[in-house]
Design goal:
The complex is a heterodimer of chains A (about 220) and B (about 300). Chain A is mostly helical and about 220 residues long. Chain A has helices spanning about 15-25, 30-45, 50-75, 85-105, 110-130, 145-155, 160-185, 190-205, 210-220. In chain A, helix 3 (about 50-75) runs antiparallel to helix 4 (about 85-105). Chain A is globular. With about 300 residues, chain B is α/β, with parallel strands linked by helices. Chain B has a single domain (about 35-305), classed as NADP-dependent oxidoreductase domain (TIM Barrel). Chain B has helices spanning about 5-30, 60-75, 90-105, 120-135, 150-160, 180-185, 210-215, 230-235, 250-260, 275-285, 290-305; strands at about 35, 45, 50, 80-85, 110-115, 140-145, 165-170, 190-195, 220, 265-270. In chain B, the strands form two sheets. Chain B has an eight-stranded parallel β-sheet. The radius of gyration of chain B is 22 Å and the shape is globular. Residues about 15-30 of chain B have low confidence and may be disordered. The chains are: A mainly alpha (about 220), B alpha/beta (about 300). Chains A and B meet through helix 1 of A and loops of B.
Chain lengths: ~220, ~300
């Protein structure tokens, strides 16, 4: 008789997947605003003007705040008490992203890369819906924590490496916590979202800054 | 044909009346829920109660609240009384409180736990649980997994003496701290002990169950299905041909009747999220129970599978 990971969880997969349905339903028309904001982030990241890209980062910061206040604090924390700590961590991440946005715009992104990222996020967003058997359980970035974390980790690749590391702590810790939760609930399909977040987090943490990569490319090669 | 006098007529009437009652008497016997007495008081409890671990932690979800209401309704309709929860189980206490208010059952036995390391916070914990359950008094208050048991037990004993709670107890699960539980059973004036006991996890049979029986302490069995793993392992297999002989028509009854047929047991507290499973659980509240030889056969059968 030993504790299994699932013995430490106090709720069932059914209750967990219902959180996504309730998060979407309770936002009502604001859901359309969130979808518009996701589109706006993509469009702003293409712009050459730094202020536009700073605006994109501010929108992402707002998404962390919304996720903390709505999904985590109101829906998830009451059934899973360790989530209470993450409410504050998500709020902190939102503040940090906002502060970075004021000082440093992310690098501009090519349209083709944005399309790939949006398609990948759409696939990931649909996994909770597939697991729950209803489209109303779709997980959107800016509302639900896994998708917010994954989207942000991808975005952090556009910042210099030294800026990324402190901003990666909360998303990576969340993805680890969430992956273990999904494992305990045996929700294998939606577990891919925090799983992708962890892999992406490791890559983004090591990926060279754009300026460094450019400098490396421009440096004269060693001749024989 | 000789004429019927008044005496014969009345005697005949009495006989017919008595005969008409006999099937009803037998039927009542068949349909009566199986109960066990709480040794401390003699009060009887149905041998199947209801746990809320994982299953009733649904937050404020209206759809799931309605669904759990149907589960609880079935529990009461089939003769259940004891509901067990804990502050550890997220929103389970609040959910049970709301549903009890909706259903207003005729009879219920409310059991929960004190779960805090702060040994001076016993009364606060009980008051908080009472507010969540929306009831004036708990029937049973237990110290959850022996957390802070020294301070909590002292306060609970005082609360029981003052009539603020009816019974007190301690709990453990997963076979943890059995030596400590044994010590407390031997020396503390406990009414209940809750521990893990099921057809595969039978460690409690060696010392704790005989000691509880000897000391007159009621026993609640948690994790009767090993957290659902018994179904994962055996549900795809057919029941043995002789299952009817031990009063089991499905695996739920098989597992539960094994537990509650132990002479030291007072009740088992399976938890479920569905009405169908609740009906199966409550099926174990009726019919015959296996005897000692049949219990051994039941356990051997699973070992052979």
């Amino acid at each position: 008789m030993d504790y299994a990971l699932s013995d430490l969880l106090m709720f069932t997969p059914e209750v967990y997947l219902r959180l996504f349905v309730r998060a979407n339903q309770s936002l009502g028309l604001w859901l359309a605003a969130v979808v518009a904001a996701i589109g706006a982030v993509a469009l702003l990241l293409r712009r050459a003007r730094p202020a536009a890209r700073q605006g994109a980062l501010m929108l992402v910061a707002a998404g962390w705040g919304l996720t903390a206040a709505h999904f985590l604090a109101q829906l998830y924390a009451p059934i899973n008490w360790p989530v209470t700590g993450f409410v504050w961590a998500f709020a902190l991440e939102g503040v940090l992203l906002g502060a970075v946005a004021l000082r440093r715009p992310p690098a501009p992104v090519r349209t083709s890369l944005l399309v790939v990222a949006l398609v990948a996020l759409s696939i990931l967003a649909s996994l909770t819906a597939l697991a729950a058997g209803t489209a109303t359980a779709v997980a959107l970035p800016g509302i639900t924590p896994d998708m917010t974390a994954v989207g942000t980790v991808a975005l952090l690749a556009l910042l210099p490496r030294v800026w990324r590391w402190p901003l990666l702590v909360v998303p990576v810790l969340w993805c680890l916590f969430s992956a273990l939760t999904h494992q305990a609930l045996a929700l294998w399909l939606p577990m891919a979202v925090p799983g992708v977040g962890l892999v992406l987090g490791a890559i983004v943490a090591c990926w060279p800054s754009r300026s460094a990569a450019r400098a490396k490319r421009q440096a004269p090669g060693r001749s024989a | 044909m000789p004429p019927l006098d008044r005496r014969d007529f009345l005697a005949g009437l009495l006989a017919v009346g008595a005969m008409s009652r006999i099937p009803a008497l037998f039927a009542a016997e068949e349909n009566a829920p199986l109960t066990r007495a709480i040794p401390a008081s003699g009060e009887t409890l149905p041998v199947i109660g209801m746990g809320t671990w994982r299953t009733f932690n649904v937050g404020r979800d209206p759809a799931l609240l309605d669904q759990r209401q149907r589960v609880l309704e079935t529990f009461f309709a089939r003769g259940g009384r004891l509901i067990d929860a804990s502050p550890m189980y997220g929103t389970a206490e609040a959910v049970v409180g709301e549903l009890l208010e909706r259903l207003s059952p005729d009879a219920r036995f409310a059991a929960t736990k004190v779960w805090t390391g702060d040994e001076s916070a016993t009364r606060e914990s009980v008051a908080n649980s009472q507010a969540l359950w929306r009831i004036p008094r708990f029937d049973l208050m237990q110290v959850h997994n022996l957390v802070g048991w020294e301070g909590h037990l002292e306060t609970l004993k005082a609360m029981k003496a003052a009539g603020e709670i009816r019974y007190i107890g301690i709990t453990t699960s997963h076979g943890r701290r059995h030596a400590d539980v044994e010590r407390l059973l031997a020396r503390e004036p406990l009414d209940f002990v809750q521990l893990t006991y099921n057809i595969l996890d039978r460690e409690a049979e060696a010392r704790l169950l005989p000691l509880a029986q000897e000391r007159g302490i009621a026993v609640i069995a948690n994790r009767p299905y090993q957290g659902g793993r018994l179904f994962d392992r055996f549900q795809s297999r057919p029941l043995p041909d002789w299952a009817e002989e031990v009063g089991a028509s499905n695996w739920a009854e098989y597992f539960l009747k094994f537990i509650v047929s132990h002479p030291a047991l007072t009740c088992a507290i399976p938890a479920t999220t569905t009405v169908e499973h609740m009906r199966e659980n409550m099926g174990a509240l009726y019919g015959r129970l296996p005897d000692a030889a049949q219990r051994q056969r039941m356990a051997n059968h699973l070992e052979d599978l």
